[in-house]
Amino acid sequence: MSLLGGLALPAGQLAMIANVSAQTASSHLSQLVAGGLLIVRPQGRHRYYRLANADVAHAIEALMLDGRDKRRIAQPSGVPETLAYARTCYSHLAGRLAVDIAGVLEGRKFLVRREPNLYSVTRQGQRWFEDWGIAFGDSQLKKSRFARPCLDWSERRHHIAGQLGSLILDRLRQLKWIAPVRDSRAVRVTLEGQRQLRKLFGMSVD
Euclidean distance between the first and final Cα of the chain, in Å? Predict the structure, then answer.
């Protein structure tokens, strides 16, 4: 879960987060690397681990959703509010803010469900994204995984994943409408972000 934000962390820090010994962490990390779920990069005396790709991140989120469903009666909510509201999931935005944005874009017909797991960007949507500072060509649009809905495990609604999800997250960062929360993959909406998101999407922003 700590790697879902796209960070690379050293084995020692991951051992502390998981509350296990360094030896145990090393053994588990080696198995995850061998299984293709993590990649490791040596840097000086340390070895840094990160998720292998976005598909791994999506699989972890799906497992978290299944886990929450199974313990729903006993533990209806154990998600910190900051994570539930807005967080990074590998390379895109997740949480309540992300699903609200996806809902607005679908409602305005900028995004249309083409299949259960794919979005099409309409011509009107392409022009809207370009006006907002996100430009992409027809060749990108033709890629099957350019834009796709991803079921959010804390909201049980869909946010936007794929390359388009990454572009949206990058644009929000460039504009400084969101900022990272220290030592977390949660993000907060800045005061400027609150004003601009209300204006752009016409939605209430906490």
Answer: 24
Within the chain, what is the greatest distance between any pair of CA atoms? 55
DSSP-assigned letters across all residues of 23-50: HHHHHHHHHHHHTTSEEEEEETTEEEEE
Note the pLDDT of residue 80: 66
Task: Read off the pTM.
Answer: 0.74
As a whole number of angstroms, the distance between CA 133 and CA 142 comes to 20
**pLDDT, tens digit, for every residue of 2-42?**
787 777 888 888 888 888 898 898 899 999 999 999 999 98
Closest by CA to 49, choosing from 4, 3, 16, 1, is 3
CATH topology of domain 9-52: Arc Repressor Mutant, subunit A (1.10.10)
Look at residue 99 and tell me whether its pLDDT is greater than 90: yes
pLDDT reading at 69 higher than 70: no
Q: Rounded to whole angstroms, how far apart are CA atoms 172 and 129?
A: 12
Domain boundaries, the chain: 9-52, 56-201
Whether residue 63 is predicted with pLDDT greater than 80 in this model: the reply is: no
Rounded CA gap, 181 and 169, in Å? Answer: 15
**What whole-number distance in Å separates Cα of residue 111 and Cα of residue 107?**
8
Q: What are phi and psi of 35, to 5 degrees?
A: -85, 0
